[in-house]
Amino acid sequence: MHGQISRWGNSLGVRIPKDIANRIGLADGVPVEIEERDGEVVISRTKPRLRYSLEELVTGVTPEEAHETTREIDWGPDVGREIVEE
């Protein structure tokens, strides 16, 4: 199928035919990645951002691992806006 590049403000755009958009699940507002690969323009759907609960994120973390990742780290004395006056 052939298309045509058109000016869209300061950018360029191309229309994606409805039957192609439907086959690959593109719709108005769907985020895509646009990149140049070996001299060609490649447009692909981006993977949806996943959201996890805190419980899901820490599932399987042992107490030993939790202690190691939450231990206090000494970065040296506070400087600048880090200083907290008590």
Description:
By secondary structure, the chain is an alpha+beta fold. It has a domain at about 5-45: Pemi-like Protein 1, Chain: D, CATH 2.10.260. The protein is about 25% helix and about 25% strand. The chain is built from three helices and four strands, in the order E-E-H-E-E-H-H. The strands form two sheets. Strands 1-2 form a two-stranded antiparallel ribbon. A two-stranded antiparallel sheet has the order 3-4. The longest helix has 8 residues, at about 65-70. The chain is elongated.
* C-alpha geometry: elongated
How many strand segments?
Answer: 4
Rg over CA atoms = 24 Å
* SS summary, helix count: 3
Oligomeric composition of the shown chains: single chain
Highest-level CATH class of the domain at 5-45: Mainly Beta
Uncertain spans: none
What share of the residues lie within helices? 10-25%
Strand order, main sheet: write it out: 1-2
Beta content: 15-25%
CATH architecture of the domain at 5-45: Ribbon
In short:
The chain has 86 residues and is α+β, with helices and mostly antiparallel strands. The chain has three helices and four strands; from the N terminus they run E-E-H-E-E-H-H.
